[in-house]
Each structure stands twice: as C-alpha cells, then as structure tokens.
Amino acid sequence: MKILDAVVTASEAYYDVLKHFGTYYFVACDGEKIVAAHWTEKFDLHVRVGDPLNPHWLIAKAVHETTTQETIVDQEHTTLNQSYVGKAIPLFQDGVCVGALGYYLSTEHVEKQNHVVHEVHELVQSLQTISDSFIETSQHVNTIQEEINIGMDDFATRFSHMQDASSTIQNIAAQTNLLGLNAAIEAARAGEHGRGFSVVADEVRKLSSESKKFASDIHHTIQVLSSSVNLLQSKAQSIYQVGEEQTASAAEIRDVAMKVEAIASELRGLFSNGDAINSSTR
C-alpha cells in the first residue's frame, strides 16, 4: 500500500484520537489536491476533499518545499475569530514527496482554560482579602472590647464608692433626724428657757429631711446608672460575640479559599498535561 493511501485510510481514526485532546482540523493531500479532511463545526478552515492546493496553504508549502512547515495564526489575522497553530509534514514514497499531512489546533480551549484558572485565582485572592478584612475587624473589635472592659471595671469601682457614699448619707440623715427629735424633746422640757434650742432642733430636723431626700435622689440615680451599666455590659458582650463569629467566619472563608486554590492547582496541572499532549502531536 502506498503511504498516502495508508494515511488517508487511517486519517479518520487518527482524527478521532486527536479530537479528545483539543479542537483539531486534520487534512492530507497529494501533489495537487486535498485527499482527506476532518474537522468540527467550531474549527473549520473550509478546506474540503477535492479542493486544489493553494500555494499559500501550509500543507502546499510542505509539498513544494519538501520540509516540515509550522505556523501560529492569531485570531486578529483570520476570519475564524480564534487563534490556532498548524503543522504540515511532507510524505515520501521511494524518496519522492507524494503529498503531505497537516493538522491544525485551535488554541481557543487553552485560552479559555487559562482564563478560568485566572478567574479562580482572582476569586481566591478576593476571598483571602475578605478573610483578612474580617480578621482585622475582629481584632479591632476585640481591642475595643478590652478597652470597654477596662472602663467598665473602673466605673464599677467608682460606682461601688458612690453606693457606699449614698449609704453613708442615708445613715447621717437618720442620725441627724434622731438628734433633732431628741433636741426638740429637751427644748420642750426646758420650756421658756429652751425656746432658742427649739429653733436649732427644727433646723436640724429640716437638714435631716433634706439630707434624706438628697440621699434618695442619689440612690435613684445609682439605680438608673446600674441599669445602664448592665445594658452596656450586655451590648459589649454582644460585640465580643460578633467579633468571635467574624473570626470563625474568616477562618471558614480562608479554608474555602485554600480548597479553591487547590482545585485551581489541579486544573493547572490538567491543562498543562493537555498542552503537553498537544505539543507532542504537533
């Protein structure tokens, strides 16, 4: 069997193997025309069996120059709207060039694969940025929480002193009131001679009454402050919990980012293997 006939016979099977590794266009020719052509709708060079050789075609150059020809075509210089690489190998029979075998590979899938990997990488970067932002915010919240706790502890100490002072004022008011009552009793016993002392007793009881009212106002204010402090502590605890949740969320996001990056690495490996296979067939 002539080598050209063998190539034509095996061309379909050869193309069926190649198409699993990329988008190929496979052709064979004799010295004058195309004798075999296989392609897909996505990558059609519009060369058909029986078409006469165009001297500008890569496969025609391989026949006329009897040397292997290679080309790289950018999508900007072709009506196919996609880039591709091509290779044409002359076929010899008894030392004479009887035709050529040509195959072209669209690089569109490689570009798409690289784009996907790039998009995945950018997604990973975004996730890591979000994670870092969460961690930074959480750390800031924790710092604020610590400052609030210090302030609350200081306030609690002063608050305790206020309560002690209020209790002391209430005790003084009670003692003053008792002293006023005793003074009034003694003034009554003294009769006319105790009239001046009676005035003093009235003033003492008046002071006691005002002190008692003042102590009551302080006690009420302390109760209001106590409620406010409890509410503030509750809010501070909520802020702390939010910070903890953000830290946990950041850890989860970082974990997802690492998994996505691992997938991207696997994709790079697969695409690299595919490119290696394609390179070996060029």
TrEMBL record:
Any Gene Ontology biological process: signal transduction
Keyword Cytoplasm among UniProt keywords: no
Membrane-spanning intervals of the chain: none
A GO term from the CC aspect: membrane
Keyword Transit peptide: no
Lineage: superkingdom: Bacteria
Family: Belongs to the methyl-accepting chemotaxis (MCP) protein family.
Name of the protein described by the UniProt record: Sensory transducer protein YfmS
Organism lineage string: Bacteria, Bacillati, Bacillota, Bacilli, Bacillales
Gene name of the encoded protein: yfmS_2
